[in-house]
Design a protein that fits this description.
By secondary structure, this protein is of the alpha/beta class. The chain folds into two domains: about 1-155, P-loop containing nucleotide triphosphate hydrolases (Rossmann fold), CATH 3.40.50; about 165-270, Orthogonal Bundle (Conserved Hypothetical Protein Ylqf, Chain: A, domain 2). About 40% of the residues lie in helices and about 10% in strands. The protein has eleven helices and six strands. The protein has helices at about 1-10, 55-70, 85-90, 95-100, 120-125, 165-175, 180-185, 185-200, 205-210, 220-230, 240-255, and strands at about 15-25, 45-50, 70-75, 105-110, 145, 150-155. Helix 2 links the parallel strand 2 and strand 3 (about 70-75).
Length: about 270
């Protein structure tokens, strides 16, 4: 955390634009916890990554939400190339006066919580063969700059940390932004997730995909999923841990269909968890 904050301080005066990457399925959950460390005057655009896995109608609500607050916003599937319009918008920005004296290109940084697509976006902006450029006066040498189309992109490992709230960590594991096995058993994660899906009328993603009964307790639902997928132990019992992991993997990868875990105006979703 301390290293990330030092690098942010070093970058702050050199940037024209910040591209913050969030997961389109949970934009509030995956918001960068360090945005407040950047100057308020710095332009920030939000990239809603993995938009192909989110409910398209809810994503449109989020786009409207950010635009109403004056934030540039793009919903992208980063497995594909970024739209030419985004590259053009970046390269056509007017650099700050300090940037003009040193470099004509716009300077930007790509930031985000783990596994939201930060590195993929950087690769899309500068191409597969990233060419590192020389240091920029006044900027710490530990910051790497890459030349893109009409821009210089900064990448600084460790610049952002995930949410400190343990409940947020658990929810992030549902969409692969943290590793579930690091913070607890798969069964607990899956049952907590099923309970959330039931309470938010999202549970049809499971019944529609696997044709299992989704009524009853989360434990019963996970057991039915395990039996449906053939995750059985010797003697015919269900391997609950294996079934739980399969359920979380299916959710995070989009095999359960497109769904969003939160909408604009709702409370922080992880606050519901115990």
């Amino acid at each position: 955390m301390a290293k990330g904050r030092r690098q942010i301080e070093a970058l702050s005066g050199a940037l024209d634009l910040l591209l913050e990457v969030r997961d389109a399925r949970a934009p509030r959950l995956t918001a960068s916890p360090m945005l407040d460390d950047f100057p308020k005057s710095l332009s920030v655009w939000t990239i809603l990554s993995k938009s192909d896995l989110a409910d398209p109608d809810v994503t449109e609500e989020w786009i409207d939400y950010f635009r109403e607050r004056g934030r540039g916003v793009w919903a992208l599937d980063l497995r594909k190339d970024v739209p030419a319009a985004l590259k053009k918008a970046v390269s056509s920005m007017t650099p700050s006066s300090s940037a003009k004296t040193a470099y004509r290109e716009v300077r930007l940084a790509v930031v985000g919580t783990p596994n939201v697509g930060k590195s993929m976006l950087l690769n899309r902006l500068v191409g597969r063969r990233m060419a590192i450029v020389g240091g920029i006066p006044g900027v710490t040498k530990g910051v790497a700059w890459f030349k893109g189309q009409g821009c210089l992109v900064a990448d600084s490992p460790g610049i952002l940390d995930p949410h400190a709230d343990a409940r947020a960590h658990r929810m992030l594991s549902w969409i692969s932004s943290t590793r579930g096995q690091v913070i607890g058993a798969w069964t607990a994660h899956a049952c907590e997730c099923v309970d959330f899906l039931q309470r938010h009328a999202l549970i049809a993603c499971i019944s529609g995909t696997w044709g299992v009964d989704v009524s009853g307790s989360p434990e019963e639902v996970v057991e039915r999923i395990g039996r449906r997928l053939g995750r059985l132990l010797p003697g015919g019992g269900v391997d609950i841990e294996s079934a739980a992991r399969a359920m979380i993997d299916a959710l995070s990868s989009g095999k359960l269909g497109r769904l969003s875990l939160e909408r604009p105006g709702s409370h922080t979703p992880w606050s519901e968890l115990s």
